[in-house]
Specification:
6-stranded mixed beta sheet, globular, F-box only protein 22 isoform X2, F-box_dom, F-box-like_dom_sf
């Protein structure tokens, strides 16, 4: 790639397409490389894509701008103002999670398909509480937390959903295929969610996938009150944009690193939680872009520690640069990928990966390695 000084002077090179075009139309109106970079950094992903198709020079500047982006996006909002925030996303989203408290708002109000690319998969979790950074909002009603993973080079993200009891067999087959078809040692990560009716299915899925091609995956998720996905991509869908789901699995395979850890029910003091997370930190190697997820049992939080924001605050103390999102549920899925951090009662039975009265943390990191 040409040096920055060379790029800044290309408007003086008569051989460049833009200069030829300028002379053809006898105009001196021309945006330099620096001018375009200044403008492009304010564009969202869709506008930047459109700008890249103007000419080869703009494409070059747009590609340079894209290299400065690529991180996950998280934010919290109330009411319908979230639409504006989503329209301003700087990176094209691939998968989005929406955490919200239990309330009677219309499902149609939550649909994001009108402002997101058709390729983006959205999973909405109606939970017993939400969290962002070091703020654990138990029993939150109108607030929502949004987390988007962008399209990442050499990374496959697949969302597999059960919206009908007749889909169980197909769900098993799709989950196994998504895990086992990649025979390499590339990192694998599973986000697994279900409602109360889908708990047994999710537990059986965890049992089937406990060993995936020799690579132990990072696992994170749990049981929520309600679970639904966007239905607009289904040609035969009805007038509703969203469909309730029994179980959803998000499989991420490729050029990422991920770690998960289970803070079990025996870790019931701040000191024990911090010891466990310090062990976690010692085995995590962050890259340029990272995101953290936390799924806690609704019996933890203030019910266990008699104060708020305990576990999220400890996580942010140890990982201050990693954005943290998550929720509270009624049963957790997780795998300890940190050495010397396995359960003493390790079992490959029906409840493998399934826990109660625990908190599960997951970190996904990708991009250039930090020195």
């Amino acid at each position: 790639m040409a040096s920055l000084s060379a790029k800044r002077s290309y408007e003086d090179d008569d051989s460049t397409p833009n200069v030829k075009e300028r002379k053809k139309h006898h105009t001196d109106l021309y945006l330099t490389y620096d001018d375009l970079r200044l403008v492009f950094k304010y564009l969202n992903w869709a506008d930047l894509l459109n700008a890249s198709m103007v000419c080869r020079s703009w494409l070059e500047v747009a590609n340079d701008e894209k290299r400065t982006r690529g991180g996950p996006t998280t934010f919290m909002n109330i009411g319908r103002r979230y639409m504006t925030a989503i329209e301003k996303l700087r990176d094209k989203p691939a998968v989005g999670l929406v955490f919200k408290g239990i309330h009677k708002a219309s499902i149609r109000q939550d649909c994001l398909c009108r402002v997101l690319p058709r390729s983006c998969e959205i999973v909405t979790l109606s939970t017993f509480g939400i969290l962002m950074e070091n703020a654990e909002m138990e029993r939150a009603l109108q607030k929502r937390v949004y987390a988007f993973l962008p399209e990442i080079p050499d990374v496959t993200m697949k969302v597999i959903t059960v919206v009908s009891r007749n889909d169980y067999t197909q769900y098993y087959q799709q989950m196994k295929l998504a895990f086992f078809k990649d025979k390499t040692d590339r990192s694998k990560c599973l986000l697994l969610f279900c409602n109360q009716a889908g708990r047994t299915l999710a537990q059986r899925t965890a049992r089937v996938l406990r060993i995936c091609g020799g690579v132990t995956p990072s696992v994170w998720g749990g049981v929520v009150k309600d679970l639904y996905v966007c239905n607009s991509k289904n040609i035969s869908h009805d007038e509703r944009c969203f469909s309730y789901a029994f179980c959803v699995g998000i499989i991420i395979v490729g050029a990422i690193d991920s770690w998960s850890i289970v803070i079990d029910e025996d870790c019931n003091t701040k000191e024990l939680v911090e010891q466990k997370l310090e062990l976690f930190k010692n085995h995590v190697s962050l890259r340029k872009h990272s995101i953290g997820y936390m799924f806690a049992c609704c019996e933890r939080g203030t019910n266990m520690f008699n104060e708020t924001d305990v576990e999220s605050t400890i996580f942010k103390k140890l990982f201050p640069e990693v954005p943290l999102v998550g929720c509270f549920g009624d049963g957790e899925f997780g795998e300890n990928t940190v050495p010397n951090c396995k359960y003493l009662n390790f079992s490959l039975g029906e409840d493998y990966w399934y826990h109660e009265r625990s908190t599960v943390f997951l970190i996904i990191t990708y991009g250039q390695k930090l020195t």
